Amino acid sequence: MRSNHRSLSSLLSRGSLLVPVLLSVLLVSSCSDQEFGIFYFLENETKQEDNSLENTLTVAGMLLSGSRYYIAGGGGMYSRTLSSTEWDDVRMPSGADYVISLSGFSVDGKMYAGFLMDDASYRFYRADPDRNPSWERITTSVVDGPQIMAIEELNGRLFVATYDDEDYGLYSSGDGTGYTTEIAPQSNRIFDVAFDGGDYWVAAGEEVYTGGSGALATKPSGELPDKNGGYTGVYHSTDYGKWYIAMDNGVVADSSNGTSWSESDSQSVAGKDVPFRRITEIPNPENNILVATEGYGFYEMEDGQADSLERMSEFTAVELFKSWVLDIFIDAPTVFCLTAGSGLWRNTYESGTWGDWVWE
Fold it and tell me: Do residues 121 and 103 lie in contact, with contact meaning Cβ atoms separated by under 8 Å?
């Protein structure tokens, strides 16, 4: 197995660097969901195939380009072909110490990544996807300098969430170099962004914002579900014609008009509310809505109804069942779960049935 790119202790020695990300990773390792006892899980656990990635990896981003997958994991970058199980190193920019985030942008076909450099600065780069890429630094100050928390493409725009001096911001670009301020630096963390074909929505803890590009920092005109600890995930399904919002205290809501909401039962494990996070969907013809959690694997809505929300089965992958899922990457019918400290997981979902979970 590969070793981590950079030890956690060496990074923490830099004071406040990477605090929002790394302290969260430390916390997840201290959480326990063994409500039935350790022998119950050992008896029912299915042995996992271990291919090549470190199983304690934190996977901070993934993309598919051509016939290869790329990931940011454990501070390094790796790639493999669709048919392989072995991951190869990807060269990072000169002076890059740790990759924090990774995504792709179909407009220019490049991959974008945020890095912590060896001089303790944060930098933003792009490159043509390759095992030995030629990196180009994006010098726009709003994205080159702050810590890049997340990168995502929506409707032909690249959205970049940042953290800088206790403030969170959201910026977008149509070409990858010039960036429009979507949400000016604020104290509310930017959790998730979604698009319904006309408007963008942003889940930002205490608030939900909506509007067109460049005018996103407005509140929805209709009533929202109660925040239940904070808004942490947002998604729009074209096939179901619904908005979905996830909350920090164990509730997910859906709405066909963005104003009238149906809510799931409050989800809790061992007396603790489930902290829901990002929402995604296995596309047509499956249309299974998946909701990532912070420490409890993921939940799913196979019929798209919030009141049918169910947790994944613990018997298929005990470690994943207890993991903090940072994101869910879908290359249908293949589904990848990117975790904080529990590696990268792969499965298939076809005809309403999951296959076997495999550790990459």
Answer: no
CB–CB of 205/231 below 8 Å? yes
Residue carrying structure tokens 């904080």:
340
Domain boundaries in the chain?
Answer: 91-185
Cβ(201)–Cβ(183) below 8 Å = no
Question: Which phi-psi region, left, alpha or beta, contains residue 271 (left: φ > 0; alpha: ψ -120 to 50)?
Answer: left
Q: List the one residue out of 233, 302, 295 whose CA is nearest residue 269.
A: 295
pLDDT in tens, the chain (360 residues): 444 443 333 333 343 444 444 433 333 333 434 344 434 333 444 444 545 799 999 999 999 999 999 999 999 999 999 999 899 999 999 999 999 999 999 999 999 999 999 999 999 999 999 999 999 999 999 999 999 999 999 999 999 999 998 999 999 999 999 999 999 999 999 999 999 999 999 999 999 999 887 778 788 888 899 999 999 999 999 999 999 999 999 999 999 998 999 999 999 999 999 999 999 999 999 999 999 999 999 999 999 999 999 999 887 788 999 999 999 999 999 999 999 999 999 999 999 999 999 999
SS3 content of the chain, % helix, strand, coil (to 5): 10, 45, 45
Helix (H, G, I), strand (E, B) or coil at 200: strand
CA distance readout (Å), 219 to 215, 224, 262: 11, 10, 20
Instruction: With CA atoms as reference, report the closest residue to 285 among 358, 346, 355, 353.
Output: 353
To the nearest 10°, report the CA torsion of 91, 96, 99, 101. -100
Nearest to 78 by CA among 68, 69, 90, 67: 90
Question: Residue 28 — φ and ψ, nearest 5°?
Answer: -65, -30
Distance of CA 129 to the CA centre of its chain: 20
Question: Which of 254, 270, 281 has the alpha carbon at shortest distance from 321?
Answer: 270
Instruction: Copy the structure tokens of residue 90.
Output: 């990807």
Block residue for tokens 């998946």: 290
Task: Report which residue type is found at 292.
Answer: A
Q: How far apart (Å, rounded) are the C-alpha atoms in residues 137 and 126?
A: 6
Rounded Cα gap, residues 115 and 139, in angstroms: 13
